[in-house]
Amino acid sequence: MTSGLSDTAVFNWPVRVYYEDTDAGGVVFYANYLKFFERARTEFLRSYGVEQDALVAEQGIIFVVRSVKIDYLKPARFNELLAVSAKIIEIKKTNLTFEQAVTRHQQVLCAGEVRIACLDARTMKPKPIPFAILEQLS
């Protein structure tokens, strides 16, 4: 059930780099870019009315990261204001693939592709994404 999503708008979420985000070298620690990606995906879904806590409570489903491909291109530093983007590039029956990037003044610092899977919260087995959510995202 791959959808033609080439015209899907890119969602952007601002992130300020805090001291706790940096390593001993004064740059953003590599794993924290994944946290920035997570925040942008969560806010992207929220912008479509998809609240993940409600999904668990009402439908017994959760979204989990299935795979990540990431390229670190340039460092971000303490106190910089960054933009983290999220765009769905593929929709399948049980997963969504996002194209994501962290930018500073339109300069790409980090780029990646993240696939999230829909699981039954109790059994942790793949479960189809509810049709209502697919309709909202398409």
UniProtKB/TrEMBL annotation:
- Which InterPro entries does the entry mention? 4-hydroxybenzoyl-CoA_TE, HotDog_dom_sf, Tol-Pal_acyl-CoA_thioesterase, YbgC/YbaW
Pfam families reported for this sequence: 4HBT_2 (PF13279)
Q: Where are the transmembrane segments?
A: none
- Where would one find the signal peptide in this protein? none
The keyword NAD appears for this protein:
no
The protein's matches in PANTHER family, at most eight in alphabetical order, are given as:
4-HYDROXYBENZOYL-COA THIOESTERASE FAMILY MEMBER, ACYL-COA THIOESTER HYDROLASE YBGC
- Protein family (similarity comment): Belongs to the 4-hydroxybenzoyl-CoA thioesterase family.
Tell me what this protein is called. Tol-pal system-associated acyl-CoA thioesterase
**Organism of derivation:** Methylomonas aurea
